[in-house]
């Protein structure tokens, strides 16, 4: 099973709302990632968690707040977003300890900020 | 600074013919290379990978070639099918947890 699930599939929110994106994997992967992707662009790394600890934060604005409650779950809390934050948000996971590791992506959450 | 480049933003191929997608990277420390296929509004789907100790890896219709001296990899799809029409991203990584993605090539397979 190489499935990464994400909920919700679509989300529309106002600039004053608070919402959360959820990601789950049961492959035993201990590295989990959040990416943002705009149309016709490659995925842009936001955060990396390794063994449930934040290891990479690519200078993401504080209106995005990641959380890794356990080894299978990854959340992205959203607050006071801007319309330019509208994008496809992708979660991914991979092994940590092996050298040759493949990253598996979820289907994404399509976010629209009004 | 773009670590990975796909210089062809789009490619059109007749059904049944070979599709060749190219990718160049800058850092010789990368040791694992992947290709992903992506449909609009969906997450990338892993296709095939290759480690730096090999120069070719084949899986069905998909073959990835690696030329380490040129820092170049390519994906061959043969025969191409209309369902292969999608955006293809190459990605590179090393022992760290960072993956670098190319800018993507949009493949259209014409029936």
Give me a quick take on this structure:
Chain A has strands at 4-7, 10-13, 18-25, 31-37, 44-50, 53-57, 64-70, 73-79, 87-94, 104-105, 109-113.
Q: What can you see in these coordinates?
A:
The complex is a heterodimer of chains A (114) and B (111). Chain A has 114 residues and is mostly beta strands. In chain A, 0% of the residues lie in helices and 56% in strands. Chain B is mainly β and 111 residues long. Chain B is globular and about 40 Å long. The mean pLDDT of chain B is 94. The interface between A and B is medium-sized, with 30 and 24 residues.
Largest sheet of chain A: 7 strands, mixed
What is the typical, i.e. mean, pLDDT of chain B?
94
**How many strands, which pairing sense, and closed or not: the largest β-sheet of chain B?**
6 strands, mixed
Q: What's the order of the H and E elements of chain B?
A: EEEEEEEEEEE
How much helix is in the residues of chain A?
A: under 10%
Rg of chain A, rounded, reads 13 Å
Q: Which consecutive residue ranges of chain A, at least 5 long each, have pLDDT under 50? A: none
Morphology call of chain A: globular
- What structural class do helix, strand and pairing data of chain A support? mainly beta
The level of helicity of chain B is under 10%
Give the low-pLDDT segments of chain B. none
């Amino acid at each position: 099973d190489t499935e990464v699930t994400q909920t919700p599939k679509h989300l529309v929110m106002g600039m004053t709302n608070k919402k959360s994106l959820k990601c789950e994997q049961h492959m035993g992967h201990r590295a989990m990632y959040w990416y943002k992707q705009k149309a016709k662009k490659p995925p842009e790394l936001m955060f990396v968690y390794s063994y449930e600890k934040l290891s990479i934060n690519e200078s993401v604005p504080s209106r995005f707040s990641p959380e890794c409650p356990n080894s299978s779950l990854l959340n992205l809390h959203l607050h006071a977003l801007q319309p330019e934050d509208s994008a496809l948000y992708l979660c991914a996971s991979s092994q940590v300890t092996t050298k040759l590791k493949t990253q598996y992506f979820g289907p994404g959450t399509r976010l629209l900020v009004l | 600074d773009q670590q990975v480049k796909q210089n062809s933003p789009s490619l059109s191929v007749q059904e049944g013919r070979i599709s060749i997608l190219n990718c160049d990277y800058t850092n010789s420390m990368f040791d694992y290379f992947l290709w992903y296929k992506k449909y609009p509004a969906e997450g990338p789907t892993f296709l095939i990978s290759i480690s730096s100790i090999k120069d070719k890896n084949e899986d069905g219709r998909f073959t990835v070639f690696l030329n380490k001296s040129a820092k170049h990899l390519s994906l061959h799809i043969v025969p191409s099918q209309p369902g292969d029409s999608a955006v293809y991203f190459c990605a590179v990584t090393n022992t760290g947890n960072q993956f670098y993605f190319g800018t993507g090539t949009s493949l259209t397979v014409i029936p």
